[in-house]
């Protein structure tokens, strides 16, 4: 573990020199677990300690003090909405990518894609795993056309239906796209399940606690540092 920490630190120092003048910008797209919603027994709140914010803190500390990590997450959304630009916040994906000044784009979908496929809802596209993979691949390829380095994220696991039994199929599709398109992957889904009592960090069985968000941020950072070093 210490060797891994030292390696990450050395890569961060090296990468910092590369980004010193240009300024690093990363955009993170996704659902409520990107935006930063936390559920409690008394309700829900939007935490400032969301993953993009925590990533920005770590990157500014170790790599680039002027780095910006944009939180482009929108709660309740699925991949088709970001593709079409109907998530209520972002432009259609091709336009979004053409206008974005981010060099790295991180994509975190599947929780709502799985949900709406199991619970048909008026106005929401039903994305089975196959359709989800096609949409995700389109997001990746479009971002790459616009010169973005893409990182795919699997979701945190859940502990109740209607997502529980189908979410693994969506996770496998994310991994398929990462492999075939040769982009970096952060696998929260299986890594989190190796942690003791991980279910206790999901008050509503879907949304992480601030502690789990911190774990996710550290996991993403460990993948980002060598990636940033390799592209600069």
TrEMBL record:
Gene Ontology MF terms in the entry: phosphatidylcholine lysophospholipase activity
Limits of the SGNH hydrolase-type esterase domain: 28-214
Keyword Amino-acid biosynthesis: no
Signal peptide segment: 1-20
SUPFAM superfamilies: SGNH hydrolase (SSF52266)
InterPro entries referenced in this protein's UniProt entry, alphabetically: Ester_Hydrolysis_Enzymes (IPR051532), SGNH_hydro (IPR013830), SGNH_hydro_sf (IPR036514)
Key words, A-Z: Hydrolase, Signal
This protein's name: SGNH/GDSL hydrolase family protein
Lineage start: Bacteria, Pseudomonadati, Pseudomonadota, Alphaproteobacteria, Hyphomicrobiales
């Amino acid at each position: 573990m210490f060797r891994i920490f030292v390696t990450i630190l050395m890569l961060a120092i090296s990468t910092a020199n590369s980004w010193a003048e240009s300024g690093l910008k990363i955009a993170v797209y996704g659902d409520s677990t990107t935006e930063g919603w936390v559920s409690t027994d008394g309700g829900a709140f939007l935490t400032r300690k969301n993953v993009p914010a925590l990533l920005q803190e770590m990157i500014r500390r170790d790599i680039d003090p002027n780095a910006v990590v944009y939180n482009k997450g929108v709660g309740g959304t699925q991949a088709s909405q970001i593709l079409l630009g109907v998530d209520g916040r972002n432009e259609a994906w091709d336009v979004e990518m053409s206008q974005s000044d981010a060099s790295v784009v991180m994509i975190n979908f599947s929780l709502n894609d799985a949900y709406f496929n199991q619970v048909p809802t008026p106005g929401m596209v039903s994305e089975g795993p196959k359709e989800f993979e096609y949409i995700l691949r389109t997001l990746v390829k479009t971002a790459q056309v616009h010169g973005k380095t893409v990182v795919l994220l699997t979701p945190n696991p859940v502990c109740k239906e209607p997502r529980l039994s189908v979410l693994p199929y969506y996770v496998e599709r994310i991994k398929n796209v990462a492999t075939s398109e040769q982009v970096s992957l952060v696998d929260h889904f299986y890594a989190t399940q190796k942690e003791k009592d991980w279910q206790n960090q999901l008050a509503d069985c879907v949304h992480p606690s601030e502690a789990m968000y911190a774990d996710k941020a550290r996991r993403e950072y460990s993948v980002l540092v060598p990636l940033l070093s390799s592209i600069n």
